[in-house]
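ARCHIVE RECORD
Type: protein–small molecule complex
Small molecule: nicotinamide-adenine-dinucleotide
Source of inputs: curated submission
Record status: active
Notes field left blank by submitter.
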Amino acid sequence: MNPFEGRIALVTGAASGIGAALAAALHAGGAKVVLADINGDGASRQATAIGAGAGAAVQLDVTNRAQFAAAADATVKRHGRIDYLFNNAGIAIIGNTLAMTGADWDRLLDVNVRGVVHGVEAVYPLMVEQAPLSGWRGHIVNTASISGLVPAPGFTAYAMTKHAVVGLSVSLREEARRYGVRVSAICPSVIGTPMADHAQLLGDSVPVREKVDGFVRLPDADYCARKALAGVRRNKALIPVAPAAHIGWRLYRLWPGLLRPVTRRLADELAPMQAPGETSVEAPTGRRDNDDAR
Ligand SMILES: NC(=O)c1ccc[n+]([C@@H]2O[C@H](COP(=O)([O-])OP(=O)(O)OC[C@H]3O[C@@H](n4cnc5c(N)ncnc54)[C@H](O)[C@@H]3O)[C@@H](O)[C@H]2O)c1
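STRUCTURE (tokenized, with ligand):
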């Protein structure tokens, strides 16, 4: 039997990209899916497109704690329970950290970290209270990123938020085990979604995808959803998605120094020495001070 058959899943960020693909795959697997997104019209369109019906969509800004609680309550009222919460909504702001504004830091923290926290606050207690099915009560699946597991210069602030999501996930997983609630984090490398297609460096108008070699052929969102759900089925704690994520994570754990040429190239391409609007800064010559940090 398909493990998602008859299960109830709430997916945030479901109007686009990975969230839309997760919703489609879950629906195809027989789950009843609630598609939540700040873009309510987009969520309705996606719900209709996958055959769940526009009624399966809900407009939800994950930065709003009360809205998230209301969406969770409405899902339980309608379907009786929530078996899966996919905390997937997220945004990316990338480029040289010197170019980040206070508003950029706040927005990333609000959506990528508080948005996940609000989901946990709204749904985890409901899962703990509900009756177990097949030996477990619920599964919280947070979309982090490979940049939540390894250094990602040029993605520094984004990587901070995704490290937070990984930390929350692996810690809550151990705590929630006693209640029969599962917790996993999905950690994809770059996936060909609107986020990746339109991402620009701070202060630059050309999409990064047009600038960086090797960035052009990317795995798509359906592939990401398929791999992610395979990991969810096996109740894996961390679910790296795509070869670059598996390799990067393994290398960083076993031989972190071997990843350094990649992180230096990322730093040079995505966070150039001259930040937008700044005067040029000279690179120090000789051995780089942080070479021995790991
Ligand atoms: N695309 C990638 O390369 C990649 C890689 C690793 C991780 N991720 C993560 O995957 C998740 C999905 O990203 P994607 O690539 O599908 O991006 P996407 O831009 O295609 O989709 C993100 C969705 O989240 C929604 N959203 C944004 N802010 C929201 C809010 N405040 N409340 C509710 N919904 C909101 C958007 O409307 C959009 O529908 C994100 O958490 C992202 O950080 C993406």
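CURATOR ANNOTATION: The longest strand covers residues 181-188.
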